[in-house]
From TrEMBL, chain A:
Native source organism of the sequence: Tieghemostelium lacteum
Principal location listed in the UniProt entry: cytoplasm
Record's keyword terms, sorted: Cytoplasm, Nucleus, Signalosome
SUPFAM superfamilies on file: Winged helix' DNA-binding domain
Domain annotation PCI: ranges: 215-386
Name by which UniProt lists this protein: COP9 signalosome complex subunit 1
TrEMBL record, chain B:
Cellular compartments per GO CC: COP9 signalosome; cytoplasm; proteasome complex
Signal peptide, first to last residue: none
GO biological process: ubiquitin-dependent protein catabolic process
All copies of domain PCI, residue ranges: 175-356
Domain of life: Eukaryota
Organism whose genome encodes this protein: Tieghemostelium lacteum (Slime mold)
Alphabetically ordered keywords of this record: Cytoplasm, Nucleus, Proteasome, Signalosome
Chief subcellular location: cytoplasm
Name of the molecule in the record: COP9 signalosome complex subunit 3
Residues spanning the membrane: none
Entry-linked Pfam families: COP9_hel_rpt, PCI
Family the UniProt entry places it in: Belongs to the CSN3 family.
Subcellular localization(s) per the UniProt record: Cytoplasm; Nucleus
Length: 459, 419
């Protein structure tokens, strides 16, 4: 039944693929799923890395108009310089905002002082948090982090703690400081009676942090564990639901084995909701699972230009892609004793030379155990003679053991006789036999070594 | 002097004789001009001990004829009676050391190999015993390029020495292993060479010795040749060595880091950059071998990847001209490094698996030998363990610890009672 299902969808997938996430990248609808600083940062990222001039200018314009809604002067400067004259510098806005910023800071700091003078925990927390929020909005990363961390001492309920954690996580992600994200997501997850929305946000944040530190398997797990959230605005200042599907899907594809892929990704009731948002990814995972590698790899190639415009994924696209490709190759080969390279090349949409090179690379790093018959263009799986390898190994171990033991005995004898390399003086004289210390001078380390040696023996 | 000769002739027990002769040492040192005459009166075979004492005294004679002296020692070493000289190990070693130095000065190293071999055999009860003469012997073997003659000695895998008999010192031990490493390396037995060099810089140490530094340099290079990666320190390496040795062999560390990147061009340039210091250490040959071993390793990898591959493809993959590649592959087949056949008609090389299937009498014999060795080792370890556990300091320590423990327990109980 499952087969039929995938077949039907398969026929529709090619037309479907062009719709929402295709070469014609719809920046408007893409960016509307984000809010806050990440929206501007993503726009700027697209503007910087896009090769399409129209997209570039659109992105710059949108970024500039977004940033002018905030008080982040530094980011505005940044956008203007990077746009190479596309955006006109609005000095009036900058002046106004600077003035407004300084008066806001004064006000907020005064609030904080008042709160501190009154020693009301909660109002200190709110004032501190407001100040942090303001710094965050105006682009002062280190100060905002400082303020948010300070609120920690004034948290009285688990809701406060969660709040503080989310603030820090937000700052951490937007300014690529992922160690904070790790610490505070763990901390947040430990708070009692946490609501499902927060869990979703936390999982997504952890997944993102794992992705950024190239721990793809953990990232995939976290994304998949993210509870489905109808209300996208819950985490729109970090990530969009579509992103969760794409990030999670690709990471899973790159690291999960077939069984895991089926059980945890395709059949997972929660994650399926996310996948529905990005049918292309769902289809390519399905193709991969059904061993239809050519359409799967084609779809991946089609997705690539869009993924390269993603602020978090760009650095990892190539890495993930090559992993997925190697996995596909390995999976393709695994059931066969011998494989015809010609038919394999067609299945993977490549020529034989290219394929041979890829396979030989995989063999060299021990990912597959077979050998290529380059003359007849075939691949044979290799049967390892366990007996020979065992013999070989045990001979080697035996040899190593004998030589190590001999050296150890000699060391023991040297220490017994106080014959060690030491500073000058004693070096050219003959080390006295036994010395005044005799056995008494044997360091404990040596006795331990000897005991270890015996342990080896008894094994 | 006559008294001395009479003493030599009349006393039979080597131990008493040695005690008696020791009194004459000063006399002998003072009468340098009479020593040759004394030697004439003594028979090296019958009065070995006396002969030895005279030779020993002659070392300090500034006016002696070196050629004659070397001849005398050589003759003596080939004819002495082992049971006599055994009691005077220290003196034998001293004479042997000077003998070696003279030979090196005269560039007659080959002359000393047989005599020193005999000295080693007579001084040791078992082949696993180490003496200072060992390192002299190896030095002569290396200088006269008779590497294989040293093999029976270094293959014996020493694990003990007799300090009272030979007054062996740390330098003798370290140089022995250093030389052994050099010999194994020249004979291309890299695994054993690594073992030997490793011992030099992992020997118990509270200071860094230059022997250890030189050994470490060679160790790094040979490790690259054999395994293709930079080595790490074994756990037993003393802290002083681990901390300081790298500053003394910077070019080598640099080279090994570059080597690990597997980029042939970078490796070549790095080698040339440091050519001077490598040449100064006489290690440039090893450096070149290390570079060459990259190709070897690459071809070896290809054999695991391919069943058949044309010479052209191989040369493309390892970056050598085709004609040279064929030679290279041929050489590797001859060295039994790879198992393959070259078909010159269509230029294909078919790689085979290792035909060794570990059956038949040879394997059994090998196993037997190994097991015997291990069994021997076990008896040695047992006896060492026995001496150690029966030694007074060890027992004292054990007793102290027991007492401490029981005191602690008693203390604990008292505390409980107080509560």
């Amino acid at each position: 039944m499952d087969e039929d299902d995938s077949m039907v969808i398969d026929s529709g997938s090619s037309s479907n693929a062009n719709a929402s996430l295709s070469n014609e990248f719809d920046i408007e609808s893409y960016i509307n799923s984000y809010t806050g600083l990440t929206k501007i940062l993503r726009l700027l990222f697209i503007a910087e890395y896009s090769e399409d001039p129209k997209l570039k200018s659109d992105a710059f314009k949108m970024a500039a108009s977004e940033v002018m809604k905030t008080s982040n002067i530094e980011l505005y400067h940044n956008i203007v310089t990077k746009s190479n004259g596309l955006i006109k510098f609005d000095s009036q806005w900058v002046d106004n905002t600077t003035k407004k910023n300084s008066s806001t800071i004064d006000k907020l700091e005064q609030d904080l002082n008042v709160a501190k003078a009154n020693i009301v925990k909660d109002s200190i927390r709110i004032a501190q948090s407001d100040l942090g929020e303001f710094y965050y909005r105006s682009g002062d990363y280190s100060n905002s982090l400082k303020c948010f961390v300070r609120t920690r001492d004034y948290c009285t309920s688990s809701k406060h703690i969660l709040n503080m954690c989310f603030n820090i996580i937000k700052v951490g992600i937007d300014y690529s400081n992922y160690s904070h994200v790790f610490t505070y997501t763990t901390k947040a997850e430990q708070t009692p009676d946490i609501d499902p929305q927060s869990i979703a946000k936390l999982r997504a944040a952890t997944g993102l942090a794992n992705l950024e530190s190239s721990k793809y398997k953990f990232a995939a797990k976290k994304f998949i564990e993210t509870p489905f959230e109808q209300n996208a605005s819950v985490f729109s200042d970090i990530i969009s639901p579509q992103d969760i599907a794409i990030y999670g899907g690709l990471c899973a594809l790159a690291t999960f084995d077939r069984a895991e892929l089926k059980k945890k990704v395709l059949d997972d009731a929660v994650f399926r909701n996310y996948l529905e948002l990005v049918p292309e990814v769902r289809e390519l995972i399905r193709d991969f699972y059904a061993s239809k590698y050519a359409p799967c790899l084609n779809a991946l190639d089609k997705l690539k230009p869009v993924l390269l415009l993603d602020i978090h994924l760009r650095a990892h696209v190539d890495n993930l892609y090559s992993r997925i490709r190697s996995k596909a190759l390995i999976q393709y080969i695994s059931p066969y004793v011998s494989v015809d390279l010609v038919s394999m090349a067609t299945a993977f949409n490549t020529n034989i030379q290219q394929l041979e090179r890829e396979i030989s690379k995989l063999i060299m790093d021990d990912s597959i155990n077979s050998r290529i018959d380059s003359h007849n263009k075939r691949l044979y799986s290799r049967k390892i003679d366990q007996r020979s390898t065992t013999f070989d190994k045990s001979m080697q171990v035996g040899h190593d053991f004998i030589s190590n033991t001999n050296h150890l005995l000699l060391r023991l004898e040297m220490l017994n006789n106080n014959l060690t390399v030491n500073n000058g003086r004693k070096d050219d004289k003959h080390g006295g036999p036994g010395g005044p210390f005799g056995f008494g001078n044997i360091p404990m380390e040596l006795i331990q070594q000897q005991q270890q040696m015996f342990a080896q023996y008894q094994r | 002097m006559e008294q001395f000769i009479n003493e030599c002739r009349n006393t039979n027990n080597p131990k008493t004789l040695k005690a008696n002769l020791s009194k004459f040492e000063e006399v002998l040192e003072r009468s340098h001009q009479n020593l040759d005459a004394a030697l004439g009166h003594l028979d090296p075979k019958l009065q070995s001990l006396g002969y030895l004492f005279v030779l020993n005294a002659k070392i300090s004679d500034p006016n002696k004829n070196i050629n004659l002296f070397v001849g005398q020692i050589q003759n003596f070493f080939l004819t002495f009676a082992p049971e006599q000289i055994k009691v005077a190990g220290t003196i034998v070693c001293r004479v042997a050391r000077h003998f070696t130095e003279y030979l090196i000065k005269l560039k007659l190293e080959i002359k000393g190999i047989a005599p020193l071999k005999r000295v080693i055999n007579s001084l040791t009860d078992k082949p696993t015993q180490l003496t200072p003469v060992h390192s002299d012997f190896l030095q002569l073997c290396i200088l006269s390029k008779n590497y294989s003659l040293a093999l029976p000695v270094i293959d014996a895998e020493v694990n003990e020495f007799n300090v009272e008999q030979t007054q062996i010192n740390i330098k003798d031990i370290l140089t022995y292993f250093y030389y052994a490493g050099i010999i194994y390396a020249t004979l291309k037995n890299y695994k054993k060479a690594l073992d030997a060099f490793k011992f030099v810089f992992t020997a118990p140490a509270t200071a860094l010795s230059s022997i250890a530094i030189e050994a470490y340099k060679k160790y790094v290079l040979i490790h690259l040749i054999e395994y293709g990666v930079a080595p790490s320190f074994p756990r037993i390496t003393s802290n002083v060595v681990q901390r300081n040795i790298k500053t003394h062999c910077k070019p080598y560390i640099d080279f090994s880091t570059t080597y690990s990147t597997n980029n042939q061009v970078d490796i070549q340039t790095k080698a040339l950059q440091n050519e001077e210091s490598f040449k100064r250490d006489k290690n440039f040959g090893l450096v070149n071998l290390a570079i060459k071993s990259i190709t070897r390793r690459n071809i070896k990898k290809l054999t695991q990847t391919f069943m058949t591959l044309s010479i052209r493809d191989i040369s493309e993959k390892v970056g050598l001209p085709p004609a040279k590649t064929e030679q290279f592959v041929l050489k590797m087949i001859e060295d039994k490094e790879i198992f393959a056949t070259i078909n010159q008609k269509d230029g294909m090389v078919s790689f085979n698996e290792n035909p060794e299937d570990f059956s038949g009498p040879q394997t059994l014999l090998n196993l037997e030998k190994h097991i015997q060795k291990v069994a021997q080792l076990e008896s040695v370890i047992r006896s060492v363990d026995e001496t150690l556990t029966l030694s007074t300091p060890f027992l004292k320590k054990l007793l102290n610890e027991n007492r401490k423990q029981s005191m602690f327990v008693e203390g604990g109980i008292e505390m409980d009672e107080n509560q």
